[in-house]
Design brief:
By secondary structure, this protein is mainly α. It is built from 4 helices and no strands. Helix 1 packs antiparallel against helix 2. It is elongated.
């Protein structure tokens, strides 16, 4: 891809996996000339794509970790946790849904 993001919705792809795979390819192959399925061919395409995916992935993770810390530090949540088990999976799902909704509203 050149200045595009491959299908990452509907479980078609994974930003985390894509970043790892592109880093591994870069370590193994270096800056080679890539013939792309979409866009212009050339050197540095893998580096550009890896940077794009990393920026998105790291930005989202930073936002989520800040959100989680803020939510868990809230006295209401600490009190709620004493009377209701805050299963990491369920809390993570709630935060994820809220994050996606807020993200969609911001664009």
């Amino acid at each position: 891809m050149d200045h595009r993001i491959a299908g990452m919705d509907e479980n078609e792809g994974s930003f985390a996996s894509a970043v790892k795979v592109m880093d591994k390819i870069r370590q193994t192959m270096g800056d080679r000339y890539f013939l792309l399925g979409h866009g212009n061919h050339g050197h540095a395409r893998l580096a550009e794509q890896a940077e794009l995916y990393s920026i998105i992935w790291n930005g989202v993770n930073e936002g989520l970790s800040v959100a989680k810390a803020k939510i868990m530090a809230n006295p209401c949540m600490q009190g709620y946790g004493k009377t209701t088990p805050l299963d990491e999976n369920s809390l993570g799902r709630w935060v994820s849904f809220a994050y996606l909704e807020a993200e969609a509203a911001s664009f």
